[in-house]
């Protein structure tokens, strides 16, 4: 993520907010277990992962105007493939579903119930990924205004496998936004994005709360929640931000 997030590339405040709305799903609750095996010294660290991912994705965004009008899917698919390298979409989907996909709930279900939960998780993962990739892709095309710098890496107390990477975003109005990427290292040694915090706003918690509210409104009918998730979540958060 170099040129856009740590170099001299600039983008508008509106694009920052769109990016936040798009990234929150992919960054939140990567709950699939973090690594307990020995660390792979050859794996890039959290800062390198953030920098490289942005480098690759912003290169795609720079090239897209040449063909986007005639072949928009080419760009969206390419961005999705890059995000797949650093995002555990299934883990994120499970985290956003919260208590409706918890380990405790799963263990208390019979076989039919477990199959249904797995199906819900699979469908929600697909919806979540599709919505995030589409929104993120569109947001990248609108970039144009303020400088962003990649800052320090803070390791979590008592852990070498949980880290926070800080970025500073210089807005059009001169305001400096602090963005923190919370990351975890997995059993294969790779670092993946877990959550995104802009200023003091934990966007992952916002999404989880939205799923909870939608599920309660639907009387626990997760099929309804999942079917309407794109409209109820991505658009509403983008508008609010």
Give the gist of this structure:
This protein is 53% helix and 17% strand.
Description:
This protein is of the alpha+beta class and 241 residues long. It has a single domain, classed as Roll (Nuclear Transport Factor 2, Chain: A), CATH 3.10.450.710. It is built from ten helices and six strands, in the order αβααααααβββββααα. A six-stranded antiparallel beta sheet has the order 1-2-3-4-5-6. Helix 4 crosses helix 7. The radius of gyration is 18 Å and the shape is globular. The N terminus is likely disordered.
The fraction of residues in strands falls at: 15-25%
Oligomer: single chain
- What CATH architecture label applies? Roll
Question: What's the number of helices?
Answer: 10
Q: What's the CATH H-level homologous superfamily?
A: Tgt2/MlaC
Number of separate domains: 1
Structural class per helix/strand content?
alpha+beta
Fill in the CATH topology.
Nuclear Transport Factor 2, Chain: A
What is the CATH class designation? Alpha Beta
Radius of gyration: 18 Å
Total count of strands: 6
Low-confidence stretches: 1-11, 24-40
Distance between the termini: 23 Å
Largest sheet: 6 strands, antiparallel
Q: What is the global morphology?
A: globular
Key terms:
241 residues, alpha+beta, Nuclear Transport Factor 2, Chain: A, 10 helices, globular, disordered N terminus
In terms of topology, how is this protein built?
Elements: H1 2-5, E1 10-11, H2 13-27, H3 46-63, H4 72-84, H5 89-97, H6 103-107, H7 111-141, E2 146-155, E3 162-170, E4 176-185, E5 191-198, E6 201-202, H8 203-217, H9 222-227, H10 229-240
Antiparallel strand pairs: 1-2, 2-3, 3-4, 4-5, 5-6
Helix pairs in contact: 2-7, 3-4, 4-7, 5-7
């Amino acid at each position: 993520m170099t040129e856009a997030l740590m170099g001299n590339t600039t983008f508008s405040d509106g694009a920052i907010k769109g990016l936040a709305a798009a990234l929150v799903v992919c960054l939140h609750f990567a709950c699939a277990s973090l690594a307990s095996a020995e660390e792979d010294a050859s794996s890039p660290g959290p800062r390198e992962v953030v920098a490289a991912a942005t480098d690759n994705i912003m290169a795609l965004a720079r090239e897209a105007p040449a063909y986007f009008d005639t072949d928009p899917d080419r760009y969206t698919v390419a961005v999705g493939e890059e995000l797949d390298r650093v995002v555990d979409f299934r883990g994120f989907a499970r985290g956003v579903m919260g208590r409706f996909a918890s380990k405790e709930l799963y263990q208390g279900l019979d076989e039919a119930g477990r199959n249904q939960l797995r199906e819900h998780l699979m469908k929600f993962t697909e919806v979540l990924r599709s919505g995030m990739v589409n929104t993120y892709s569109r947001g990248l095309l609108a970039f144009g205004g303020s400088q962003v710098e990649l800052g320090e890496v803070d390791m979590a107390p008592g852990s070498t496998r949980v880290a926070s990477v800080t970025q500073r975003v210089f807005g059009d109005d001169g305001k400096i936004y602090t963005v923190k990427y919370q990351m975890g290292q997995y059993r294969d040694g790779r670092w993946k994005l877990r959550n995104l915090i802009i200023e003091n706003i934990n966007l992952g918690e916002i999404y989880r709360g939205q799923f909870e509210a939608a599920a309660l409104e639907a009387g626990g009918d997760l099929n309804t929640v999942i079917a309407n998730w794109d409209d109820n979540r991505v658009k509403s958060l983008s508008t609010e931000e």
